[in-house]
Amino acid sequence: MPMRCTRLIPLLCLLVAPLAAHANPFEHKLANGLNVIVKEDRRAPTAVHMVWYRVGSIDEKNGLTGVAHLLEHMMFKGTPNVGPGEFNRRVAAAGGRDNAFTNRDYTAYFQQTPKAQLEEMMRLEADRMRHLTLDPKEFAQEIKVVMEERRMRTDDQPPALLYEQMNAVAFQASPYRAPVIGWMNDLENMSVEDARDWYDRWYVPNNAYVVVVGDVDHDEVFRLAEQYYGPLEPRALPLRKPQEEPKQLGIRRLTVKAPAELPVLLMAYKAPVIRDVERDVDPYALEMLGAILDGHDAARFPQRLVKELRVAVNAGSGYDSTARGPSLFFLQGSPSEGRTVAELEAAFRAEIARIQKDGVGADELARARAQLVAAEIYKLDSMFAQAMEIGQLEAVGIPYRANERLIEKLQAVSAADVQAAARKYLDDDSLTVAVLDPQPLPKTPRPRSGAVPRH
């Protein structure tokens, strides 16, 4: 479901990374512009190898939505040296696992294998960085897989459909208004030439960086990077023009009708993201506000709206302070039986008004901070999580070496900061309200096309 709480991912993840591995990363930039970041972690004889491309759905144009994600699928369809599907087979044969993911802001590919197989992983990734085949027949098959993925994960999932429609209304100029997977009509009209053009424009070493975390020696990794990635030629990148979202001038509302058991309410306020690690205050305060509202079982929403007032069967919040584009601060929930969406909206508003008027207590703030750290610490004690931390920060323009400062800024958030942020950003003029109006469930499920999404 798209509305899972993202409050402190990746930001609060940074709180515990130093506990997982104390080594500082090493960095080396190749002559072709590819940056290689290595973090040595000797706790297990494995290595995580990730290639991040600074391109995502934010870089798409109208009529071509979904092409970034489609190209991610096509990256597994072979090169002159590696046949279709062989990439995955070689990783599995090496005793590893691999996958990829496309985001609004980036596209990334990873393998986690025994450390002795790192060289093979680098050779495979370097090969497909510039030598992808893009066969029309493979494309024709894979576009059907992507369309079925859209049906399964969005069209047939009412909360996901609501989230998608809400973004389309909340954002007007920002490319964030379009779904990462793309609009169905764009997918239906996409061609292999569209994928090839995307690949040629963006999949170049000077638009990528490699992150390696594990039981490795950084000098050896740099040597391998020079050997396999070094020969790839850079290319001039397309000019990225700013697409700033205009100021919202009043509340926006929408209703989505879809088969579902329960209504869902989404309230999304325009919110800032971190642009200056040192000078920004509000994004850190909004992170903490989200934790106070929905960071643990005793937080305000589950305690007040679910347990005490019983106006909701579930109630939560979500916010991501790190992104290339604008962000939203979400409130989300479903009303209890016998209660209405209007009553739930009123309850959400009342809780926000209480914070705007009375603020939050010091004990409440401390408890939220402690709960957030406890919830994330074990998730991040892994090589993969460390690689994700580095990659995600770099993707949105925050140097990964700023992670300790981000932690300090978050820990310095005061109750006054939280109250001020709530007053400044949780305002009707920047609010979009989306309601899922549940329709009768179908008696028989939609037949599947037979195309199974790869991931």
Helix/strand/pairing class, anyone? alpha+beta
Q: What is the helix content?
A: 40-55%
Largest sheet descriptor: 6 strands, mixed
What's the name of the CATH homologous superfamily of the largest domain? Metalloenzyme, LuxS/M16 peptidase-like
Query: Helical element count?
Result: 16
Keywords:
6-stranded mixed sheet; disordered N terminus; alpha+beta; 5-stranded mixed sheet; Cytochrome Bc1 Complex, Chain A, domain 1; 455 residues
Give your account of this protein's structure:
Residues 436-455 are annotated as: Disordered. With 455 residues, the protein is an alpha+beta fold. It folds into two domains: 20-228, Metalloenzyme, LuxS/M16 peptidase-like (Cytochrome Bc1 Complex, Chain A, domain 1); 252-439, 2-Layer Sandwich (Cytochrome Bc1 Complex, Chain A, domain 1). 40% of the residues lie in helices and 18% in strands. The strands form two sheets. The protein has a six-stranded mixed sheet with strand order 1-2-6-3-5-4, with helices on both faces. It has a five-stranded mixed sheet with strand order 7-11-8-10-9, sandwiched between helices. A hairpin with a 5-residue loop joins strand 1 (26-29) and strand 2 (35-40). Helix 4 packs parallel to helix 9 (218-228). The protein is globular and about 60 Å long. The chain starts with 16 loop residues before the first helix and ends in a 16-residue tail after the last strand.
